[in-house]
Amino acid sequence: MNLGNTLFTTRDPFTGELRGVAADLMHELASRLGVPLEFVVHATPGEVADAAGQGTWDVAVLAIEAARAQTIAFSAAMTEIEASYVVHQDSKLQSVEQVDTAGVRISAAEKAGYQLFLTRTLRKATVALAKGFQGSIDLFNERRADALAGLKPALLDAMDSIPDGRMIEGLFMTVNHGMCTPRDRPVATEYVKAFVMEMNASGFVARSIARHGVQGLTAVK
């Protein structure tokens, strides 16, 4: 579990209990397997991905990203989240397409799914890596970057802490999340893939999103 994406996971400030769509899925999976559930908590999705070969976790929810596929096996997509940019108020950038321009620096949380995508696909702009989403906001606020990349719901929630920012038009990608296992566990991988197909088809993911009132997260139908 990672606390870097509150659309999937939040921690109760009083009890410390993990809640959200990811927690619901993990409880359902453990119940079907008839095994106890232990949450291994990381601050960011990148830390979860880095630990794939360490034997510390069996299943996780992460953005489906080709750069992670060497060590992680993914299910089909469960959800969709739009990713976009915030730019400075005085910026000449007006659309997502204009951001990929020579000399433009984009602040992004290191090892986030959208950061991996941008690093792989940008042709002219460069990515300025930051530690976590808040770190990327700080980098942008310090004017060490021309644009701030992020999941659109998170960017909207953070606008109060970005006084010089404005949301740009459009989106540069749609981030899909799935359940995943370390790549060296083929039997577990096939089980999780079948589990996710059932969760999608039954509407479990959509109901969980609605129950937790998550805005900006859409279930794949």
Q: Helical amount among residues, as a percent range?
A: 25-40%
Unreliable sequence segments:
none
CATH fold call of the largest domain? D-Maltodextrin-Binding Protein, domain 2
**Rg calc:** 18 Å
Number of strands: 11
Largest sheet: 9 strands, mixed
Count up the domains.
2
CATH superfamily of the largest domain: Periplasmic binding protein-like II
Looking at the chains present, what oligomeric state does this protein adopt? single chain
Distance between the termini: 24 Å
- Count helical runs: 8
In short:
This protein is an alpha+beta fold and 221 residues long. The protein is 34% helix and 23% strand.
How would you characterize the overall build of this protein?
This protein has 221 residues and is of the alpha+beta class. It folds into two domains: 114 residues, 3-Layer(aba) Sandwich (D-Maltodextrin-Binding Protein, domain 2), CATH 3.40.190.10; 93 residues, 3-Layer(aba) Sandwich (D-Maltodextrin-Binding Protein, domain 2), CATH 3.40.190. Helices cover 34% and strands 23% of the residues. It is built from eight helices and eleven strands. The strands form two sheets. Strands 3, 4, 5, 6, 7, 8, 9, 10 and 11 form a nine-stranded mixed sheet that branches. A two-stranded antiparallel sheet has the order 1-2. The radius of gyration is 18 Å and the shape is globular. The mean pLDDT is 95.
